Input
Amino acid sequence: MWTCKNLWKKLAPLARSSSTLCRQNARGVLFNNERRLPLVPQAHMSSGTPGSGGDNNLYYLLVGATCVGGGFYVKTSVQGSVSEPIAAESEESSEPIAAESEESSEPIAAESEESSEPIAAESEESSEPIAAESEESSEPIAAESEESSEPIAAESEESSEPIAAESEESSEPIAAESEESSEPIAAESEESSEPIAAESEESSEPIAAESEESSEPIAAESEVSLSAMEETAEPATVAPAEVPAPTPVEFPSHAPYLLIGGGTASFAAARSIRARDPGARVLIITDEPDLPYMRPPLSKELWFSDDPSVVDTLRFKQWNGKERSIYFQPPSFYVSPQDLEKVENGGVAVLTGKKVVHMDVRGNKVTLSDDTEISYDKCLIATGGIPRNLQVIERAGEEVTKRTTLFRKVEDFKALDKVSRDTKSITIIGGGFLGSELACALGRRSADSDLEVIQMFPEKGNMGKVLPEYLSNWTTAKVKSGSHCQPRLGVAVITEALVKAVSFKDGKVEIKLKDGRVVKTDHIVAAVGLEPSVELAKSAGLEVDSDFGGFRVNAELQARSNIWVAGDAACFYDIRLGRRRVEHHDHAVVSGRLAGENMTGANKPYWHQSMFWSDLGPDVGYEAIGIVDSSLPTVGVFAKATAKDTPKAATEKSGTGIRSESETEGTANSPVASSTPEPPPVPEQKDNYGKGVIFYLRDKVVVGIILWNVFNRMPVARKIIKDGEEHADLNEVAKLFNIHDD
Output
């Protein structure tokens, strides 16, 4: 190494002959372009007068030897830190020298990289800086003559190239030699496999020697330059210390089967897909924090539980006394989303708390609320619906809004449970399935407290849009008396109630009706229907039905060639009853299952008639199928009820509290009565409607059936609707349900 230094001193006069021209060219480029010379690693170097090729070869050989020697020294002195020599030497050196910031307004300064220990010692003894900056020349890299009193420029860390001098013939700007150059220096640098920074460290030794012999102006400028370099060097030594760890992927970027929505329809579809394709990888995306669960117990069995921790466990006793959870499967059933692509035999993964906000049908991908994109091969939309609210409540202000519950999810059940324990009055607006079920459930709870439960609706009786008027009135009387809902207080039912305005006064919510009546309460539960969730229709370019709402699909539940819709959001074509949209649990099971089969190539039409049911406590319940609309003509056949004609007895016999899961699997082979052109008139009934069958007719054909306290006969009802025949005597048809058996 010291030999190389002596050789360099001998060759220094040869380099001085070109220094003047180098400086002039560099100054001209800087002043003309008003910017720093580009440190492009390309240069043609000359160590003598034009034409002295022998000198050039000798110079190249010496510089190459210097590079190899410097690289070997760095490799042996730095402890295994070949990949990051600058960082390693920065820790050992007490005064690291860093490159001056590119943003500096001063002329471009060339500086030496951090020197090794011998050079550092030499620098301390001489108290002279290793690198000097020239304010006048603005040369990136220059070899300075001792007689010229010009600053000596060392090579910049940013370029990390050996010292280069400009050729007098080419008048090119001084720059480091490129790796692509065919010059010997580049070749030697590549063969050494050492960082180029090591070469520049080694080559800085002769410069340091010349720096010690330079005049006082050089030292003065060097001290100023060194102080500036030390300021910029401080952050440079800290910068590479920390590298942020990559964010772990929480879900796959692609799912062969993508199910949007985490309700009953999605779970039924996933189970159906896995049954037909055991190795399928299914990803369910839901905006709820919960795994797929069944909704009916939220307004039924959970309210009749005696367990004080039911809000936390979400486990309940069915009417048959057996306990179960509202969740379809425990967490162990599912695969974690990040493992879905790696699991050997596939599985079902649920991505909770994520909402799909955009759907690219052509690109087969969806965008989540956090801008994450997930691609798919086949997709099911099962987004369900959003509870409707009354406009008068929405306009009433914040105080009324925060005292109003729109009942739909687990969190709504928990919130209403807390309200029922903390307040003294709850008013339920709505007389349909949900409103009547919650009225009975809360009415029962009021037996152990001073809770007042009020139910109001615009119809003349409970479930007035579904039941015939006489049966609706009978049901309303039972709710009022409390014989089935709450044995002591019952529920205060206000019929033909049209809400005109809602306000908050004196700590109470005040409800004004159009007929002038005023109801004051602490809390409102709005159970006025469901609006299908079709937010994705616009971005996906899917059709929404103008009459029934929901995504318009064909009989196979297809909206596009690889997109299906199931559950509450599907407006499907029923091959027997025409276009429909159904909002019930069993329909979600049946349509989800069918969609899953069709996603795996079944191509089956929707012919299965789903059922729905409602229980007004453990003693009164009904099951229905088809189109049940009180505006249609009806025929009812009733009989005296017995102790076994209750929802509790029915579930004890069937062994399940979710009746749709067992009833939809059965088939009926019983014969039906012969057809006739004219149905009989509606028979008169007594005041006691213990159990019976109500037929709904359209064009003299049965299109809907309600089984009132008659259970486990749904396959018979389904066959009657499927046949689509006219019947001479519906009393004979009613015998198929065994309503007269004790």
